[in-house]
């Protein structure tokens, strides 16, 4: 019996390796060398010569200059960081709500699912940039009803006033950046058995109680997945000022800035995962 369990476990491990093998091979072929080379350049001053590139070893000079010498990195990162803190929960809540709605049985459900996913295909990259530059990503009623002025009066001189206004001015981006999350939540919602909801209705549970006791706990793995995806997606936002800063300067400085930015993203993701897992553990223990 133990030998059979061992074979079954080995078979599952081999199946997992087969599924992740294309990604691992692609990473080794196309990503490993550029990442290693960028780390190498971050330690050198790169000079472009007619005969090629010249590398002068600088050590950690660029890293210390970015972190302790210049404020340009923090001036660009902190406002954008505040926008991400606001935007990510809004996208997650909106996506979860829409996914639950689209899971209901109503006429034209397939059409609505396509409508919510189409912006991901058409409004990406340069197309999205042009949409926002032409003012298509703003909400007209914000200016019409002077909501921004009331918001500024409410927040006062707080440093959060501008990020909140930027998020509201680009609120249509919530729709454009929610297609993948809606699809993941929709797939997760369909993994919950109907018998759980039928039992809850027989016991007299209200829809609100069903959501908090059945739907939300069962969706927690998908919430974590969407949190990770959304954070990474927001940190590569087309209007990211840090990425614009990375595209200036010499190769060594840019590489060091990119690696620092990568560490910031990794730390942010780690904090989110730790907080989410802790909150999820506390919710299950109740």
Automatic annotation (TrEMBL):
Taxonomy, superkingdom: Bacteria
Pfam family, one: BPD_transp_1
Domain ABC transmembrane type-1 positions: 77-280
Chief subcellular location: membrane
Entry's Gene Ontology BP terms: transmembrane transport
Transmembrane annotation, as ranges: 16-40, 84-103, 110-129, 167-189, 210-232, 256-277
Keywords: Cell membrane, Membrane, Transmembrane, Transmembrane helix, Transport
Annotated membrane topology: Multi-pass membrane protein
Subcellular localization(s) per the UniProt record: Cell membrane
Keyword Transmembrane attached: yes
GO cellular component, one term: plasma membrane
Cross-referenced PANTHER family: BINDING-PROTEIN-DEPENDENT TRANSPORT SYSTEMS INNER MEMBRANE COMPONENT, BLL4140 PROTEIN
Similarity comment: Belongs to the binding-protein-dependent transport system permease family.
Listed name of the protein: Carbohydrate ABC transporter membrane protein 1, CUT1 family
Organism: Paenibacillus aquistagni
Taxonomic lineage from the root: Bacteria, Bacillati, Bacillota, Bacilli, Bacillales
């Amino acid at each position: 019996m133990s030998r059979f369990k061992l074979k079954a476990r080995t078979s599952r491990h081999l199946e997992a390796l087969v599924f992740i093998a294309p990604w691992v091979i692609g990473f080794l072929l196309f990503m490993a060398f550029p990442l290693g080379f960028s780390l190498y350049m971050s330690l050198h001053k790169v000079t472009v010569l007619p005969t090629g590139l010249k590398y002068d070893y600088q050590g950690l000079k660029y890293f210390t200059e970015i972190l302790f010498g210049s404020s340009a990195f923090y001036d660009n990162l902190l406002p954008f960081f505040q926008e991400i803190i606001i935007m990510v929960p809004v996208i997650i809540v909106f996506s979860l709500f829409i996914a639950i709605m689209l899971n209901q049985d109503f006429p034209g459900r397939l059409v609505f699912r396509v409508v919510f996913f189409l912006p991901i295909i058409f409004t990406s990259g340069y197309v999205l940039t042009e949409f926002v530059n032409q003012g298509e990503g703003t909400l007209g009623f914000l200016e019409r009803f002077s909501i921004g002025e009331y918001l500024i009066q409410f927040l006062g001189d707080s440093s959060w006033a501008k990020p909140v206004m930027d998020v509201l001015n680009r609120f249509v981006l919530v729709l454009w950046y929610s297609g993948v999350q809606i699809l993941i939540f929709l797939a997760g919602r369909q993994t919950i058995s109907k018998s759980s909801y039928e039992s809850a209705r027989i016991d007299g549970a209200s829809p609100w109680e069903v959501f908090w006791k059945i739907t939300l706990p069962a969706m927690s793995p998908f919430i974590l997945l969407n949190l990770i995806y959304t954070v990474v997606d927001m940190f590569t936002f087309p209007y990211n000022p840090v990425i614009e800063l990375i595209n200036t300067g010499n190769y060594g400085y840019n590489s060091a800035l990119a690696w620092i930015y990568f560490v910031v993203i990794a730390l942010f993701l780690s904090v989110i995962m730790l907080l989410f897992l802790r909150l999820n553990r506390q919710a299950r223990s109740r």
